[in-house]
Structure formats: C-alpha cells, structure tokens
Amino acid sequence: MTGHARERGNGDLQSVVTSFYDRSVREVYGYFHRATAGDRRLAEDLTQETFMACVRAASSGLADATTMPWLMGVARHKLIDHYRRSSREERKLSLVWSSRADEASVDLDITDTAAFSALAELSAVHRLVLVLRYLDDLSVNQIADEIGKSVRATESLLVRARQALNSIVREANHD
Amino acid sequence: MTDSIRRLFERLESDPSSAFVDSLRARVTDELNRQITASAVISTTQGDIMTITERPPTEAPDQQPRRRTGIVLATVAAAAALVLVGVLVRNNQHDTTPATTLPPTTTVSATTTAPSTTATSTSQLPQQTAAPIVRDPGIFQVRSAGSSVWAAGNGSTALLRIDPSTGATLDTVTLPQPAQQDWMASDKETLYVPVSGGVVTVNSATKRASAVLAPGQEVVAMAFTNDSAWLVRGGTSLEEWNLGLTTRTRSVPLSGFTPGGMIGVGRDIYLATDTQGLLHYDRTGTLVRAIPKVGYSFNLGFATGSIWVPDYDSGELLRIDPKTDTVTARIRIDFQKSHSVAATDSAVWVTNYFDNSLFEVDPSTNAIVAKTPANGGPMSVAAAGGKVVVAGDGWLLSFAPATR
C-alpha cells in the first residue's frame, strides 16, 4: 500500500474502529465483569487493554481485528494473562497433579445471597478455569491449551475448582 | 452442577458506566490517531515498503495463535523501516501503561539511548525436534547448578538431579518441605529451592539438602552477589542474607508492584517488575535507577557482560548494559509471553509460551539462530553439560545447542 492509499484509508479506519467500539464495548466489559466476579475496576482495566490491542491490530491492517471473535479471543488472553500473574502473586496455585476427585459427588446448591460472593472468594486459578469452561464454553482440551497445562492436570484443576466453589457456597449457606 | 455455575456467572451481568465508555472511546480514538501518525511517518519516508511493517500485536486469538513464524525482511530499506516501526510501536505500547508510584527515596533516570531492534525470520531457521526425555506429572521447573541439572515440581518434596542428555534420574533428594511454584535459583554449586516457609539449599556435590533456612513469608525471587544472597519476600520486602542463609543483614520494604525475576551483577541486583520497569539496587539495597520500558519477566540471565530479560508482555528478549543501565537491543522473539532465559557466553536461550518454542540467540550478533518446538507450554530453561534442558508442566526435553 502506498502512503496516499493509506491516507485515504485512515478516515475509513477511524470510522470502522470507533463504530466497532460502540457496538462491542458493553459485551467486552460484561465478559470481564463476570469473569472477575464483579470487580469493576479490574474489568475496566482489562477492557481498556483489549481495545488498545484492537486499535494496534486494526491500524496494522488486520481486518479481523474489528470482529467479535477476534476481540473476544484477545479478551480471553488478557484474562488468562491477568490470572497467571495474580496466581503467582497470590500463591494459590493448586497442586494439580495430586489426587483426583469424583465430579459426580459434587453438587452445588446456590442461593441468591451466596451466588454473588462465591466466585469472588475463589482463588484466581480456580476462577479462571471455571470462566473458561462455563463462560467461554471451552472444552477441557482447549482450556489445557490456553493455560499451558496437560489435559489431565486441567481436568483435576476443574474438579478442584468446582469443589472449592461448592465448599464456599455451603459455608455461606450455613452462616 | 454445570447449569448452576452458568447461572452464577449470569448473575454477574453488568453494564459499564457511561463515564467509562466515553473515556475509553476517547482513548481509543487517541491511540488510533497515534498509530496512524506513526504509520504516516514511515509512509512518507519509505514509500511502498509499508507492506513489511510488523504484524499486529500480541494478541492472536482463537485462530491458531501459535502459528506465527516471524517477519521476512526483503530489502535493507525494509529492515530500516521495521526498526523504526518497532521503536514507535514499542513507545506507544508503553505510553498506555498507567503511572505508578515508586518507593520513597528513589531516583528515576530515563534512558535516552535508542536500542537496536532485531527481527529475524524464524521460518528460515534450522528447526530441531526434541521428544521429552522425562514425562513426570510432578515436574514443573528446571535449574542448573554447577554441572548439574535439577528438576522439581510445585508441591513436591522430590528434587531430581537429571542427566541432561538422557533424562535419567541420577539422584533424588528429599526436601524437608514441598517446593513452591517460584523458581529455584543457583549460585555456583549450590541450588536454592523456595519451599513453604523459607528456602532449602542443596549442595550439588554432596547432594544433601539443608533444613528450611531464611524462615518467614514465602520467597518469590532470589539473586546472588559476590558475598550475599538477596531474597524477595512475598512481594513486600527485599532482604539481604549471607550466602548460607543463616544471617539476615538487611531488609528493604517494597511496594507498588509485583516482583518478577531477579539477578545479581557484581555487588548490585536487578529486579523485574510488572509496572516499574527493571529496578537496579546497589549493595545497600538503595534503588539506584528504574530502567523504563522493560516489561514483566519471570527470570533474568547474565552473560557476556549483559543482562538478558525475556519480556513476558512484549515477547522481546531485551539486552541491557549494566554499566549504563540502558537497553542496548530488543530482539523480537514473538509477540508476547517470552518466559524464561538461560544465558551463557556462547548462546542465550529463551522459552516462549505463546509460540511454544525455544529460541536460541547468538549474543555476538543478537540474531536468533535456532528455534525448537518445545512441547506444550515451555517454562524454565537451563544449560549444562553441553545440553539445554527445558521444563514444562509435567515434562522435560533436551537438545543440543545450535551455537558452538
């Protein structure tokens, strides 16, 4: 592309990106708000990072950068990066290769009052795998690929995350 | 169960505030203008070579994110444009980093030397293949100490001394407490293993483990100078100990950032952070300088008189001159998630979690000379015994260096 052609395209690019932003910002923010258990400030930060990436990609000529699948993929990577860091910081990584539990034995009875705080009390890594599994609808194989663990380790991590969630809810209901 | 969890997430539905939406729209527009301006500079000066500007950023979502193979530079003029764009993009990326407060009594000095940016076409590199030499769900990290290579797992008390060629377990040392997820460090023949409540030292010659030393909050980073061991304790303090970890001589409070890797250079130490750049402390624990535009790094290397920083955020391998505290080279590895480094005088190896590969860099040219697919999720890397060993979650692999 020549410089002149690029200049002609700049106006279109601005229009495309800002229009895309207006259409998608609520969905991106909503994803982060759920995935961070209602942490508004963190959701805003991650939303901003996602759109900055979108701008850089779009201005580099990547047409997909203004599509929802691409954007939500970026959002997921931002979320995973955040949790990888906070996991390291919080020292809450599970011992994923230890004994596995029987998923069928876990039963979650969630009340409205316990629901909102339950996810917030989970460790970062547990919340992340639940988000990827139940919010993003990824398969265990896909989650394993995203977080860089073996399928077996990821299965175990999911079981432990569900157990932790169940335990938190049960305690809240007893209180 | 499944539906219950989905409903749980649905209850967290919320809209952003209008103030946030408006503010971010302004930032998006501003960033877009900045990017366009940067592109225009290149267009004006280089004409049609815009087509070889860097591929977009870091994030490559669902569509096979690990397939990137680098950039082919067709002409010398194209290479010049790439360098300029690289610097501009890099600057722009860091412009968006929120400002944070440094600890008191610090002196911050911005560097002014523009580093060289090196981009190598990795598609033309010799590609080795390496099958895992060890598959053990307890493996998490690897570290060399002297001529030995040690592997450990998060939460395991078993510390394995590994033959770097075959993966055979040469010795097994039982730690008094399980190893933590934070990485081991080494000083000559001594291996330092972070465990619950402190650090265990292991002598590579005797293969004996100490009791838990330097008791206290968990140790998240370690570095060694001529006569001291420096520990970052739980992200809240920087402590100086004697090398035997029996006497603490200094404690410096830390705040405002998440610490990453740390390394000793002479009597000074360098600590990677997520928001403050690379922090340079002198032997008294006083912050000498914050080297800006250095992203978060899980560990650091030192060889050929340079500090080597695998930048997790940008994917670059940064080369820093500790005499001037300036970034002298930014070597494009991938677009993000460069994870760990092992540096020697003849070669520097970097694992990249995004591309799932191990890269070898020639320090005499700053060029990438080899790329090796590294199973899934390569993390720590160690060089010993003429081999390079990479650890991921549950495996080790070994290969011969390309540089001799």
Largest sheet of chain A: none
Summed up, the helix count of chain A is: 7
Main beta sheet of chain B: strand number and arrangement? 5 strands, mixed
Quaternary structure of the protein: heterodimer
User: Which overall shape of chain A is indicated by the principal axes computed on the Cα atoms?
Assistant: elongated
What key phrases describe this protein's structure?
heterodimer, A: 175 residues, mainly alpha, 74% helix, B: 404 residues, mainly beta, 5-stranded mixed β-sheet, 3 helices, 29 strands, 14% helix
Report on the structure:
The complex is a heterodimer of chains A (175) and B (404). By secondary structure, chain A is an all-alpha fold. Chain A has seven helices and no strands. Chain A has helices at residues 3-35, 40-59, 68-90, 112-121, 124-135, 140-147, 151-174. The longest helix of chain A has 33 residues, at 3-35. The model of chain A is unreliable at 1-8 and 89-107 (pLDDT under 50). Chain B has three helices and 29 strands. Chain B has a five-stranded mixed sheet with strand order 1-22-21-20-19, with helices on one face. Chain B has a four-stranded antiparallel sheet with strand order 2-29-28-27, with no helix packed on it. In chain B, 49% of the residues are buried. The longest helix of chain B is centred in the first third of the chain and has 29 residues, at 18-46. Residues 41-113 of chain B have low confidence and may be disordered. In chain B, helix 2 packs antiparallel against helix 3 (76-95). By secondary structure, chain B is mainly beta. Chain B has helices at 2-10, 18-46, 76-95, and strands at 116-119, 132-135, 141-145, 148-152, 158-162, 169-174, 185-187, 190-195, 198-203, 208-209, 219-224, 229-233, 237-241, 248-253, 259-265, 268-273, 278-281, 287-291, 301-303, 306-310, 316-321, 326-332, 338-343, 348-352, 357-362, 367-373, 381-384, 387-392, 395-399. Chains A and B meet through helix 1, helix 2, helix 3, helix 4 and helix 5 of A and helix 1, helix 2 and helix 3 of B.
